[in-house]
Specification:
The protein has 387 residues and is an alpha/beta fold. Helices cover 48% and strands 11% of the residues. The chain has 15 helices and 8 strands. The strands form 2 sheets. A 6-stranded parallel β-sheet has the order 1-8-5-4-2-3, with helices on both faces. Strands 6-7 form a two-stranded antiparallel sheet. The longest helix has 22 residues. 50% of the residues are buried. The structure holds 5,6-dihydroxy-NADP and zinc ion.
């Protein structure tokens, strides 16, 4: 393990079909005033709203609601939530939904009592959090981001057309997360495959870095195998509990820092995709898939041994009589075939991106730290490749 690290993750996970039975116990640990945060209609459609509000009532909680948190959550909604928290002296933010609702909950948590402008301080200047944070608990309904067990909070400032992510310290991680794979059965197929590719991308962004022999890379390869295997099964049968539960756990461990330990990491694909999201509002994982293909075909030569290892160990590419370039490119081809097989669109155009957005997306993307440091023209060329 090349780099020193400290690992601490304070989120208590309740996983499985009966996980919701732990909610009442968790609620005992917090005061009476709860902000119930959720998205548009899905939690009402699946009956989850009724069961959660019934438990809150039985536990004698005072509930304030904020609904309509949009996919790619907006900073204006963060400010609205922060105001509600102050006015109602909120003791716990209970986020019920996917990554967007949970990211928004963390953003509200740090912003409610922030001194000064939270956007500037926490998402632009990346200052450390020096104010009280409101505890967050989550009930996960859509899997992919791992927001349920990390400090990530990706927020879109609509006025500035800027989407930017921040990883907060463990004091901001959810205190508990309830993960019942059955709650994901109703996620529309396109969102499910978006989540699946998001997981794959998190694993790749961590894997494609360094040239040392690191236990973390072996862990990542194992998680990738499980993900690919279960993704195929879940696409064939969305009610396959074994597959859905494996995907859910792949997602959580894929970005709760375990699969990034002692690694430099890349994150360039995410940085570009976040700006694509700011312009198009497309599902995060779909944008990642489209951008990944030309990106990896462009940078693989700068980390060729790792791409060869990926092709052989993850996709089973036969290396016999092939050059390193051929093996590496075959691995990326297999990734793209997998993306097509599970039903992901392959062009930016299909995600609502127009030609005049390409330059703006390129020029506002944050530059990452992969095998090849890109400049804005290189990002533009990558976007043109997949347009
Ligand atoms: O709004 P509702 O009606 O709830 O519908 C949602 C939403 O439209 C729907 N949905 C969720 N659970 C459902 C369901 N529909 C039916 N049945 C259910 N059980 O799914 C749609 C998408 O939800 P969203 O929360 O936006 O998806 P996801 O979990 O992919 O989150 C994406 C956001 O997370 C950020 C992304 O950038 C994006 O803004 N990320 C957060 C990260 C983190 N915290 O570490 C890292 C990631 O790389 C990512 O950037
Ligand atoms: Zn992601």
């Amino acid at each position: 393990m090349k780099y020193d690290f400290t690992y601490y993750n304070p989120t208590r996970i309740h996983f499985g079909k009966e996980a919701m039975s732990k909610l009442a116990d968790e609620l005992q640990n917090f005061g009476d005033n709860i902000l119930l945060l959720y998205g548009k209609n899905s939690i009402k459609k699946i009956g989850l709203y009724d069961s959660v509000t019934a438990i809150l009532k039985e536990c004698g909680k005072n509930v304030t609601e904020l609904s309509g948190i949009k996919p790619n959550p907006a900073y204006s909604q963060v400010l609205e939530g922060a105001k509600l928290c102050r006015e109602n002296r909120i003791d716990l933010i209970l986020a019920v939904g996917g990554g967007s609702v949970i990211d928004c909950a963390k953003a509200i948590s740090v912003s409610a009592y922030a001194k000064g402008d939270p956007w500037q301080r926490y998402w632009i200047d990346f200052e450390s959090v020096d104010n009280d944070v409101i505890p967050v608990g989550t009930i996960l309904t859509m899997t992919g981001t791992a927001s349920e067990m990390n400090g990530g909070s990706v927020i879109t400032n609509e006025e500035l057309t800027l989407k930017t992510g921040r990883v907060f310290p463990p004091s901001v991680y959810p205190k508990f997360s309830i993960l019942n794979p059955e709650l994901t059965y109703t996620v529309p197929k396109i969102q499910m495959v978006s989540g699946i590719f998001d997981i794959m991308s998190h694993l790749m962004e961590q894997y494609f870095s360094g040239d040392d022999d690191n236990t973390t890379d072996y862990v990542i390869e194992g998680v990738m195998h499980s993900l690919i295997n279960s993704a195929r099964k879940a696409v064939a049968d969305p009610y396959d509990y074994e597959a859905r539960s494996n995907i859910m756990w792949c997602a959580t461990i894929g970005l709760n820092r375990i699969t990034g330990l002692s690694k430099t990491q890349d994150w360039e694909v995410h940085n570009i995709e976040h700006q694509l999201g700011a312009y198009t509002d497309c599902p995060h994982g779909l944008g990642l898939s489209v951008i990944s293909m030309p990106y990896y075909r462009y940078i693989y030569k700068y980390g060729i041994d790792k791409f060869v290892r990926y092709a052989i160990n993850v996709w089973g590419v036969n290396p016999e009589d092939k050059t390193k370039d051929e093996i590496a490119l075959e691995g990326i081809d297999r990734l793209q075939e997998f993306s097509k097989e599970i039903g992901i669109p392959q062009t930016l155009r299909e995600l609502g991106c127009t030609e005049n957005m390409l330059r703006k997306i390129a020029d506002t993307s944050i530059l990452g730290g992969g095998y090849k440091q890109l400049d804005y023209d290189e990002i533009y060329n990558i976007l043109k490749e997949c347009y």
